[in-house]
Amino acid sequence: MPIKTARLHLRPLTPSDAGDIATLAGDWDVARMTGRIRHPYSLVDADQWISKLSDDEFVRGVEFEGRLVGAVGYVPNDDGSAEIGYWIGKPYWGRGFATEAARALVNHCFRRERRPRLTCCHFADNTASARVIAKLGFRLTGRGKGWSEARKEHIETMKYERRRPLIARLGSFAS
């Protein structure tokens, strides 16, 4: 089911998205801030990623005016929580797309999926993600190290969580 915001359409990825993903995610400035995107990142890499998404991964393409600009998603944890992630292509930075798309994903996780808690992290040098996460109401829970496939090294990470709002929890008892 697609998720819509005022400007964005979050929809399942298709094989035809591979070219845009390779171009956008393959940019060094995007790839180096993610854990799983290698650099260089090819059309074959993007095609394989799309085709190998597992059933437990919820990934949506972020579309603006009919054009793919990034991706958001989550992976469930064993305790019922989920870890969210997102990236936006560099030509689309500075427009609030990451915040808008991630906010829609958070709302989906809490309201539709009824996740009790969400987690996320970013590399310590990714100040843009720090701002997005703060706008979404996550709280810092600690630091750690995370692997960057693009950088080929472990990087200091900042870890966050957000619990489902009480009003959403109360609403789940009424349904």
| CATH architectural group | 3-Layer(aba) Sandwich
CATH class: Alpha Beta
* Model regions low in confidence, pLDDT < 50 over at least 5 residues: none
- For the secondary structure, the number of strands is 8
- CATH topology name: Aminopeptidase
Radius of gyration: 16 Å
Main sheet: strand order: 1-2-3-4-5-6-8-7
State the shape: globular
Classified in CATH, the superfamily is Gcn5-related N-acetyltransferase (GNAT)
Q: H/E element string?
A: EEHHHEEEHEHEEH
End-to-end Cα distance, whole Å, is 20 Å
By helix and strand content, what is the structural category? alpha+beta
Mean pLDDT: 94
Number of individual domains: 1
Could you provide a short overview of the structure?
This protein is α+β, with helices and mostly antiparallel strands.
Question: How would you describe what is shown here?
Answer:
β3 and β4 form a beta hairpin. It is globular, with a radius of gyration of 16 Å. Helices cover about 30% and strands about 35% of the residues. α1 crosses α3. It is α+β, with helices and mostly antiparallel strands and about 180 residues long.
